């Protein structure tokens, strides 16, 4: 069987469907899965084990046989815990076939084949009865079906079904209960992920302020959860306006309802401010007493000694539909609405007559009406709102724009054309036409968004949007003028890895015939940079686990390793490193340069060399990022922003993902005697736009 996988081609910027073998999909799934991270989550594992032991004992004390239903068994870990704790029999359900196969092997290897039956089905397909998958209903329900938002992986419908058809009334459940907590905060940084702030431009004829259209101001944005490593958000970046409040809980030992509903709590701000964001996380009580608690609370809520690093469960940032000024001590109602899979929030000021009434009208799930939230994702909003970044672009545009410039911008959803207009167009009433080409993928029509944007800023007719791919650009699009200034950020929504934005170079090559002989290209060049690092925690997601709470899960480790090596050459993967601290073991090194003043060459660009390790530590991998040289003296980095030299602590661009290449020492857990250098071999294939790399320690 063949599957088709969508992938953006970095040389054309468009989506292509590639035919892949049947194995491809599942290798991707395994290689990028969170199984390793879960197995490394000691706090989770220990508490599940305690909870399961306690549940088995409670059932045994009642003189009953302990029959366990483990929904989503993965490696079989929780079933093996139950069997070790004395359960009489476990039904281990796993829908994902490669995992179910792995579970069978792992269960066998650990000697539990007679106690655990692995069933490769979705739990809603499982049958009970003498000829069914399960002989009888279970009296212990064990699951780990939670995501950062708790319910995003479908825990509620799965529980609802299990209580109806698969478990006995009054069953024990591990976890017993989940509770969702919230805290109201004001944060310019996080709010900048949802809203476009006015952009100030110092133009020749005074200050210009670019404002978002009113549609954008009032748009509730997207429903999709914003999950982050909140522990990496410094306390100086937000201000808490309320105490931590329990928003709602779910008791998993009783029938669960998945239908949409709302929960409301009363809040009294502890401080006056602008309510913008609801931060949220959950905890699970493994037993009814609440003595075995596993919590995702961030650092300011619980002692740092109790913090367990994990990537499979983080914290949520919810954006209120509007910013709401609140006063210390006033009465507010916070409403959480949820459907089967997601949660969203609303804040209301309490009015006297309403106080006794519960919010019975559920507010509909947020839908972006302004289209900006479809065009720009949250990090992109953050980048557009980053004033120092904007300043650098303004500075460099000011250097290259002349009164008669004909300017073309190639970048997705960029504000550069507007900036270019402000910085030059006044003197070029007719000649200067800033053009832009906002998006190459016709998922939706961004045209309306730009029209609204231009209207709000009296820029109609000042900037022309060309809806043509670069290779289809015609002289008529440019009113038969040659482009004298070609600009880009570069940023393209289809880019996954940093160098995919080199699509700008391909587009520049495609429009060559339209460029004036003395054209200025901004950025004039780009460079690829690399550094060897030791991660504080991120290494865990790709590192073998070996023995987990006494159970041998090496079959899983091998499976992940095989999947990572599936393509023989391992690949770099994108991670937003501001969320994943690391320490540099080498100096940052420039490894390749790309000259945008020239066209993309036919031949590959490759480099080999070695990088000296200047600090002791574990070489987990290499981080790679791009820097764009806007002009001779202004550069922007999409990766390293600062390196503190004594300790090697790194500060990363908070709006971009960097590329991480994990060394095989992480994947295979080899013990290395301290290497002193790392050799590299990096090749940019100009035909595919991809970079292949190899490292030796
Ligand atoms: N129980 C394991 C793995 C948890 S990951 C552990 O704790 O380490 C969750 C697993 O549940 C995934 O493998 C997923 O494929 C599976 N899953 C999710 N919902 C399911 C359902 N309704 N029926 C069967 N499997 C499910």
From TrEMBL:
Alphabetical list of PROSITE patterns matching this protein: SAM_MT_PRMT
Cell compartment(s), UniProt: Cytoplasm; Nucleus
Single GO MF descriptor: protein-arginine omega-N monomethyltransferase activity
UniProt xrefs under Pfam families: PrmA, PRMT_C
CDD domains linked: AdoMet_MTases (cd02440)
EC numbers: 2.1.1.321
Predominant place of localization: cytoplasm
Stated role: Arginine methyltransferase that can both catalyze the formation of omega-N monomethylarginine (MMA) and symmetrical dimethylarginine (sDMA), with a preference for the formation of MMA. Specifically mediates the symmetrical dimethylation of arginine residues in the small nuclear ribonucleoproteins Sm D1 (SNRPD1) and Sm D3 (SNRPD3); such methylation being required for the assembly and biogenesis of snRNP core particles. Specifically mediates the symmetric dimethylation of histone H4 'Arg-3' to form H4R3me2s.
Protein name in the entry: Protein arginine N-methyltransferase 7
Taxonomic source organism: Quiscalus mexicanus
């Amino acid at each position: 069987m063949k599957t088709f996988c969508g992938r953006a081609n970095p040389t054309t910027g468009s989506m292509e469907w590639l035919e892949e073998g049947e194995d491809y999909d599942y290798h991707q799934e395994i290689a990028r899965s969170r199984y390793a991270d879960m197995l490394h989550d000691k706090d989770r594992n220990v508490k599940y084990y305690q909870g399961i032991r306690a549940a088995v004992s409670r059932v045994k004390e009642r003189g009953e046989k302990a029959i366990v239903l483990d929904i989503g068994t993965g490696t079989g870990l929780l079933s093996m815990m139950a069997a070790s704790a004395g359960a009489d029999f476990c039904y281990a359900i796993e829908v994902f076939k490669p995992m179910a196969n792995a579970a069978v092997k792992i269960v066998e290897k650990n000697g539990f084949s007679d106690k655990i039956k692995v069933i490769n089905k979705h739990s809603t397909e499982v049958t009970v009865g003498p000829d069914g998958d399960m002989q009888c209903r279970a009296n212990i329900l064990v699951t780990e079906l939670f995501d950062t938002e708790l319910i995003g992986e479908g825990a509620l419908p799965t529980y609802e079904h299990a209580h109806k058809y698969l478990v006995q009334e009054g069953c024990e459940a591990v976890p017993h209960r989940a509770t969702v907590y919230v805290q109201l905060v004001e944060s310019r940084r996080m709010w900048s992920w949802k809203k476009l702030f006015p952009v100030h431009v110092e133009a020749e004829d005074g200050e210009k302020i670019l404002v978002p259209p009113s549609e954008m101001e009032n748009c509730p944005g997207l429903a999709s959860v914003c999950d982050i490593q909140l522990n990496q958000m410094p306390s100086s970046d937000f201000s808490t306006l309320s105490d931590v409040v329990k928003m709602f809980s779910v008791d998993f030992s009783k029938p669960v309802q998945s239908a949409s509903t709302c929960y409301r709590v009363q809040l009294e701000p502890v401080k006056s401010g602008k309510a913008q964001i609801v931060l949220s996380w959950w905890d699970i009580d493994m037993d009814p007493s609440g003595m075995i608690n596993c919590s995702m609370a961030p650092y300011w809520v619980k002692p740092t000694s109790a913090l367990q690093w994990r990537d499979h469960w983080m914290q949520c940032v919810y954006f209120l539909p509007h910013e709401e000024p609140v006063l210390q001590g006033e009465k507010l109602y916070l409403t959480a609405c949820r459907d089967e899979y997601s949660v969203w929030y609303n804040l209301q000021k309490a009015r006297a007559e309403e106080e006794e009434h519960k919010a019975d009208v559920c507010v509909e799930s947020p839908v972006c009406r302004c289209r900006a939230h479809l065009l720009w994702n949250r990090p992109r909003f953050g980048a557009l709102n980053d004033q120092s970044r904007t300043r650098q672009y303004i500075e460099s545009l000011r250097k290259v724009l002349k009164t008669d410039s004909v300017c073309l911008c190639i970048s997705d959803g960029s504000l550069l054309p507007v900036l270019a207009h402000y910085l030059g167009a006044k003197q070029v009433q007719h000649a200067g036409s800033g053009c832009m080409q906002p998006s190459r993928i016709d998922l939706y029509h961004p045209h309306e968004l730009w029209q609204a944007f231009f209207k709000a800023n009296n820029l109609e007719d000042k900037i022309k949007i060309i809806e043509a791919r670069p290779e289809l650009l015609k002289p008529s699009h440019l009113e038969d003028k040659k482009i004298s200034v070609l600009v880009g950020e570069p940023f393209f929504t289809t880019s996954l890895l940093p160098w995919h934005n080199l699509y700008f170079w391909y587009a520049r090559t495609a429009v060559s015939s339209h460029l004036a002989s003395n054209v200025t290209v901004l950025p004039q060049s780009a460079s690829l940079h690399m550094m060897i690092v030791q991660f504080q925690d991120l290494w865990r997601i790709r590192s073998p686990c070996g023995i987990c709470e006494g159970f041998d899960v090496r079959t899983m480790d091998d499976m992940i390793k095989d999947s990572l090596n599936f393509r023989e050459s391992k690949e770099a993967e994108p991670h937003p490193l501001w969320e994943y601290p690391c320490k540099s073991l080498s100096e940052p090194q420039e490894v390749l340069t790309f000259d945008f003043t020239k066209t993309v060459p036919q031949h590959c660009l490759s480099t080999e060399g070695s990088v000296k390790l200047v600090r002791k530590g574990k070489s987990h991998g290499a981080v790679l990022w791009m820097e764009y040289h806007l002009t001779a003296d202004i550069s922007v980095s999409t990766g390293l922003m600062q390196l503190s030299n004594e300790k090697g602590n790194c500060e990363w661009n908070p709006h971009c993902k960097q590329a991480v290449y994990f060394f095989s020492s992480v994947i295979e857990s080899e013990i290395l005697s301290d290497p002193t250098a790392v050799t590299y071999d990096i090749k940019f294939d100009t035909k595919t736009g991809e970079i292949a790399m190899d490292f030796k320690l």
